Amino acid sequence: MTILPIVIAPDPRLKIKAKPVESVDDGIRQLMDDMLETMYDAPGIGLAAPQVGESCRVIVVDVTSEDEERNPVCMANPELSWLSDDDRPHEEGCLSLPEHYAEVVRPEAIRVTYLDRDNVACELEADDLLATCIQHEMDHLDGILFVDHVSALKRNMILRKLTKAKKLAQK
Ligand code: GNR
Ligand code: NI
Question: Which end of the chain is flanked by fewer CB atoms within 10 Å, N or C?
């Protein structure tokens, strides 16, 4: 397994709609495993393939805390099959927007269909942090970042700071 470099915003690769995978083959399984290692190393609770420069519809999540046993979930071609009527706000962060956080309102519970690591069609019901995280990761597959859900003022402030930080790092 390999720790992959994480793409930091602003970057055109984070704005592209990712392509569905045909099936979960050895190459996709390798990507899932590398994404999990990258996510645990960061550390984060989720990661989407575009964040490691792969424009395909693959996400990994694990919302367990560090003192619990790991519970990695790998999904290819995730699709929402149900959304709760009730929304809830949650403070979100993103490995592609390091050190920036904002409250985002999303449905508090979801059902999602996907292909698992063994290419088996599955459906999962999630709520609270897991529902938030899966929706955040699925957004990445459509080129959407959590800052796209907050006010333009806050979004531009965060993106300006990241642009500055990138320029400083180049010099
Ligand atoms: O590590 C992460 N934490 C997090 C916290 C609240 C809502 C979503 C997330 S996902 C984020 C990792 C990441 O950037 N995934 O795309
Ligand atoms: Ni993210």
Answer: C
